[in-house]
Every structure is written in C-alpha cells, then in structure tokens.
Amino acid sequence: MAIAGLGEVTERVRRYTVLVQPGGRGSGSGVIWNTDGTIVTNAHVAREAKAEVTLWDGREFAAEVIARDSRRDLAALRVPAANLVAAVVADPSRVRAGEVAIAVGNPLGFLGAMTMGVVQAIAPLRGLGGRSWVQADVRLAPGNSGGPLADVHGRVIGINTMVAGRLALAIPSSEVVQFLLGQTGGHWLGVSLSAVRLPQPSKNRFGLLVVGIEPGSPAAQASLLPGDILIGTGEENFRSAETLAVALRNSAGILRLKFLRGDYAKVRQVSVSLVPGGRRPIAA
User: Would 87 be classed as within a structural domain?
Assistant: First the structure.
C-alpha cells in the first residue's frame, strides 16, 4: 500500500500524539486537541484525577483531568503548556469505507508506533449498542487506547478505543467534539448537543439539538431551552459540531446564535455572554 508522503504524514501525527500514564500499572495514548494544552484520551486510560503526559519531544508534564465521561469513554486533560502541535480534525461523516486509516500510539511500551489499515465502516456494531464506531482493520495493542486514528492527510477521524475481533474501533471525532463542547476550550456554553438533519421547510440541513442545559450556564442565562436547534452564528451556519467549537474558541466573549424553536421556518437569534475557560468536569 504505497502512499506518497506517508513518512511526513506519520511524523505529523506523532507530533500531536502523547503518552498518558495515569499512575500505577498501565499506560495509554492521547491526542493534543488544542494548542493551549487540552488533550483527549479514553476515560479508561485517565482513571484518576491526575496523570503524567509525555510529548513527542520528550517533555513531561503533570496533567489534570478536567472532564471525564465513562459512558462515552472519553476524558479531557490539561497540561501547563502553550503553543503545542495540535491535531487537525476531520469530519468522519465524509470518510468512506475503503479509505486508508493510520493509527499512532504507544503499544506495549513502543513510543510513537504506527500501524495502517483500511476503514471498513462507520456504523454501530452488533452487541455494542446504537453508537457508531469508526471500524478499521488496523492492529492495536494495549497502550494504543486514546491515540489517534487519522486519514492519509494526518487529520484525526477517531480516538482508538478497543478491538472487536479483527477490527479496531475508534470513537468518531465528531463525538469527541460534542463531548468537549461546553466542557473545555476557549469559552463555556453549558449545553449537551446532538447533531440532527433538518427537514423542510427549514432552509438549513444541519443543526445541533440542545438535549441538556447546565443550571446557571451561559446558555441558561440566555434562555435557551432543551429542544432548541442551534443552526449557526451571526457569521455562518453550522456544518458540523466542530463549527460551533471553533466559534467558541474564537469568540471575544459574546456569541450571537441562530436557532429554531418549534418552527422550522422561523429563525430566532440570541446573544450569549460566554464564560472564559470552561473547565467544568462532568460526572463519570
């Protein structure tokens, strides 16, 4: 499977892949999600409130677990570092079966090990509930958990989590973005969201359904309600959950949101005063 520039792509992925050591036995991998020191890994890797993180260049940091969701098997860590090499995230809905997938991690003590295979599907797997997985025939071993599954451009399409038969299962990057929204990043909104496709008569085709709002959050203060569908900001419509994540990171503190409430044809708007930092842990 000859791929032009594979060495450069693999090196790029290695630079945003980290070693996560939660203390005690075992270790895993993680992905530098933001340049400000936010790292994503599996919840079963970050089992404690603290962890040791080693970057690709050998630097070591004490990391704090700032968000954890055992149901999704995701955790977010923060290290006291800035200007890190962060991952570029791809939209997994655009990935097709047959595309090449690259996994980088730290299996069995081998740092920055790479393995490659082909995406088989992005769909639920029988016996594992209704959630979708990026399923690829890449070889994973203990220590790969929490590391990136990337496309041939080096963009993250999933977080490697487990093995089922001969398939590696990764949590889609879109689910990671939903986990992080309202939990970490530049500003805190305080919502739980689910991506939805909108029917006619809406002129929009994609929205983010508000399924939960934290009491006292900026979303609650702005009178957003569960059931509202966020469709964009004052500048652009949402194409994915990542579009909202970027808007939250880049906001100066006031974010103007467009949303639907009970009427697909009528677009409402609200200005939300965001809270900086947003380091709100979630229940395990």
Answer: no
